[in-house]
Design brief:
Helix content: 25-40%
CATH class of the largest domain: Alpha Beta
Number of domains: 3
Largest sheet: 6 strands, antiparallel
Shape: globular
Oligomer: single chain
Number of strands: 20
Distance between the termini: 41 Å
CATH topology of the largest domain: 2-enoyl-CoA Hydratase, Chain A, domain 1
Low-confidence stretches: 1-7, 11-31, 427-434
CATH superfamily of the largest domain: 2-enoyl-CoA Hydratase, Chain A, domain 1
CATH architecture of the largest domain: Alpha-Beta Complex
Strand content: 15-25%
Mean pLDDT: 86
Length: about 425
Amino acid sequence: MAKHKRGLILGTTALLLATVAVTGVGLRLARSQAFFQDNPKELVDEVWQIVNRTYVDGTFNGEDWRAVRKTYLEKEYKNPEEAYVAIREMLETLDDPYTRFMDPTEYQAMRIDTSGELTGVGIQLAQDQETKKLVVVAPIEDTPAYRAGILAKDEIIKIDGKSTKGMEVDDAVKLIRGKPGTSVTLTILREKKAIDYTLTRARIEIHPVRAEVKTTPIGAVGYIRLNQFSAQAAEEMKTAIEDLEKKGVQGYILDLRSNPGGLLYTSIDIARYWLKEGKIVSTVDRRGEVEQQSANQQNLTDKPLVILVDGGSASASEIVSGALQDQKRAKLVGTKTFGKGLVQSVRELGDGSGLAVTIAKYLTPSGRDINKHGIEPDVIIELTDAQRKELQKSRDKIGTSADPQYAKAYEILKQEILVQQGQPGQNTAVKTAP
């Protein structure tokens, strides 16, 4: 069971780069691929059964799920491709873009993503639940999309001139993917203005944690930037904190900006490095059962902490920042987070295809359901488009005094450190969240 839990993912639907993991361990069906080739209707029923057993909403978002089964099992399917079309239609009735079917090629692409052999342009892509528009959750740092200036919340309206109206995320991924060195043009809608970005696809190596010591007037400060909650992120975070502790830092700034999330249990492990005791997150399934995850006295530091967040901080980023905010362990600086509070399980089906099912939602320690709402920081510092573009253009300015949000985080951390040292802090004027 532990292996299954560690495969749980949060509600980002991006398949362009790895922030998700496959929970295929122990879940592979016993029936052979040949069986499903000869009996495609069985695959339709298998998908229905999984959703029926595990979907987060027992009302199936108001859909008569048994009637759906009857409708689709009354049809005949000549081949697996016809069954795939039917499965996608069936899942669309749930009106949940995070519960989705992947044919064998798409599922294999997801597995490649999680292996570390990545190719793409470097964006996390999702479908807005209400508008059905394709939006950028966040560009991944040091990738073609990031360097070009694509921003979180940008809407992708065309891919190589083809309209994305009504397009599913998986279909968009197919168009955006390609061999390294080839190009793709994304038309972005931002503030009612359409902008074309021609990006060269590349092989992308991601190290989720970057850490350094900042020399300041109040002593050494540890700065840690976490790009995604991948499988290796927890171990890299542990190493970074231990190394910074040895170097005698007085406090920390944890940068979760444009971090679109990833593995549920990676976020819990990382929260435990900062929090000595107390609840971290609760997951609630359709039966109302609550599974709580808490700190376990294994924290690596108790020094002052400020966390940077923005509209690209999603899912796992919101678990960590929400937990440490609720537990008064850290101050949050930046702008409201993305607002994704759903948990999915990804299963491999008998014919080599895959199914992602929304199985739960998560709550912060105080009981906040942040899905669609996001987390308000303690101190709101907005960046203009010009400032964001400048930081993306000149990456060496991120996490420096030239970065307005970092500068405010340092100012707040400085006060926390002075108070901990028994020195009077100076009051500073800040714009706080209501």
